Amino acid sequence: MVDAPLPLPGATRRDRRTRLGYGMVLASAALFAVNGSVSKLALEASDMGTLRWTELRSTGAFVGLVVGILLLAPQRLRVGRREARSLIVYGVVGFAFVQWLYFVAIFRLPIGIGLLLEFTAPVLVALWARFVWRERVRDRVWAALALVLVGLVLVARAWSGVTLDKLGVAAGLGASVALAIYYLAGERLVVRRDPYSLVCLAIGAAAGFWAIVQPWWSFPFASLGETVALPGGLGVAVPVWLLAVWTISLGTIAPYVLSIGALQHLSATTVTVMATFEPVAASVVAWLWLGETFAAVQIVGGAVVLIGIFLAEAAR
User: Residue ranges of the domains in the chain?
Assistant: First the structure.
């Protein structure tokens, strides 16, 4: 009788690291997904508006992240003059605009549809890499683009006239462009800087941008005291400030740290592909909690869009 070979210790460790990475990405996507419903409840219950909610999210997340890094590794926050300019642009476009346009989209559209529009960004990334950076990109990117376009037509049910809010659709597509810039610029910046301090400083730039556009002395703090009746037959009313705490801590800091930490165990392409779990999870949460429903053709269209996103990521 021949004994079975023992597993290699290194292979076992790699498997564990891979499983940990998958778990971190899925947990991050789930937290982002829940945050969509939490933010929509807060926006509908208060007169704060999407701009102020984005400002609150960015500033709160920056404070939490910068405190953590100062306690653990303050040297990571050193920034040169040339790098500072890149971080400011990256923070304003890749964080301030992505978050704001996302909130506008989900406020005016079903959450799942708003996220599907935003997550078409990988197709734009693949096209940019092919035609601007002259990278080798597989021909499947054209199939990906065709599937995404067909899927979006099904989601919008374009043959029956415009059934989706135009401003919401524009915001979702704008978020897609900003998210593509987030991926492309982040791919270059992370070569020179660790991902944790990169996110911290970029969110700090976004917070500074919003503080200039909307000074804090005019912030509607009274809106934070308004109450929100949680749906789903829970019979519980909570203040808006509690939803803000969720958005800052579990809807921003935690998922960003998890997704960035996953890059230590998985490739960037794998992380990005698995992150497409977010639109699916967000749709399920919004259906169960907020009662948002979709027509059968929209569900099919969403699935077609997701397949196109997978192909776009694989094309690079």
Answer: 9-315
- CA dist list (Å): 22 to 19, 26, 102, 157, 281: 5, 6, 25, 34, 15
**How does pLDDT run across 254-287, given as a tens digit for each residue?**
998 888 888 778 766 677 777 777 888 888 888 8
Q: Is the pLDDT of residue 159 over 60?
A: no
Spatial distance between the Cα atoms of 148 and 126, rounded to a whole number of angstroms: 13
Taking the C-alpha atoms of residue 292 and residue 109, their distance in angstroms, rounded to an integer, is 10
Query: Which residues lie across from 228 on neighbouring strands?
Result: 238
Model-level pTM?
A: 0.83
End-to-end CA distance of the chain: 47
